[in-house]
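Q: I'm writing up a methods section and want to include an example of the input and output format. Could you take the sequence below and give the corresponding predicted structure tokens, formatted cleanly so I can copy it straight into the document?
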Amino acid sequence: MKLLVVVDKLLTGFDAPSCTYLYIDKSMQDHGLFQAICRTNRLDGDDKNFGHIVDYKDLFKKVEKTIAVYTSELDHSDPGADPEVLVQDRLTKGKQRLDQAIEQLALLCEPVVPPKGELEHIHYFCGNVEIPSDLKEREPQRSALYQGTASLVRAYASIVDELEAAGYTSEDVARIQTLQKHYLDLREIIKQASGESLDVKAYEADMRHLIDTYVQADEPRKISPFDNIGLLDLIVKTGIADAIAQRLSTLKNNQRAIAETIENNVRRKIIKEHLNDPAFYEKMSVLLDEIIVARKEQAIEYEEYLKRIAELVKQVEAGHADTLPATLDTPGKRAIYSNIESAAMETIIETWLKEENEPYGNLKQAYLDLTLQIDEAVKANRPDGWRGVQAKEQIVKQAIYSVVKDVAEVERLFLIIKAHSEY
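A: Here is the clean output for your methods example:
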């Protein structure tokens, strides 16, 4: 419930912590007025520090009188929080919130090394691209930046039309406007650099269904086919030069900042998809490390770097190598195939081939045959809703074991199979 229109009820003896705004357009006094106002004074999570009263009946004097009567009877002798009731001035409180939001962001960004440009902020909030764990470990700093910027925007918006009335000079107003734009731009740069910008492409079909079903309008004209897709997907579809021009223009041709933004996006994709195909994404991680080292040591020109990173992006986005057999036509089959190459599996295949009275010949074909057998065994034996149900998961593991005959390999492949929705 977002809006409630009240005539007589729900004004006294009713606790509503989520109520933040009370619009009064009714004459009230004494106990009833005080009780109505108290509907907004319950805290409700981190987002609510106080309630707002919007008074259309000029009841403020009555409120002061009512509170004075109420507080005169309060018992201040007991230890603990002060039971005093406080009415706070909106502009004074708004100025405090705005000043506090600016100060918190300044303190958060204080450790950024000079000259505190885009690249230095990327290093502080995203870490070293050569250390895969850095991106995850710097997540608290990024979250604090996003939350702090949101708090700044809310505090600014609440008194934007009354900044001078709140006590700011014209110079202060200009400074605050500049700071708000700076932190908004910085938030977008860090989101891009960390790969945390929202990619709404996955929701496109659902959004179009909602629009087509419930919104009556003229036939839509699509201005750009790439307006709401991720950076890596944009590189694949338009080429790296166009992607940089469209998505990273705010970095003002800072080659290092652009490179690290792309690298962080690739790293994030690798970490996110790693469980789906550990062997493939480990190879991609090694290739990314090699490209980063070559760039930093200036072993390759910037144009060559862009070419190599673009090729890597294509493979990472595809999720598999280009040279796989055509029969591996699903993500699950491709993941199994790329992860059965191991010393233990070679022994298993050799034994398996001997049992079939076949010569130990084409190892690649043997891997392919084994992959298809595992895929078929799992799909033929999996129970409905098997994920998270131990007894049902054991049936899937037994199906894998019937092919590979090795407990350790079953456990390793099971985690990969479990990560793919096709099984």
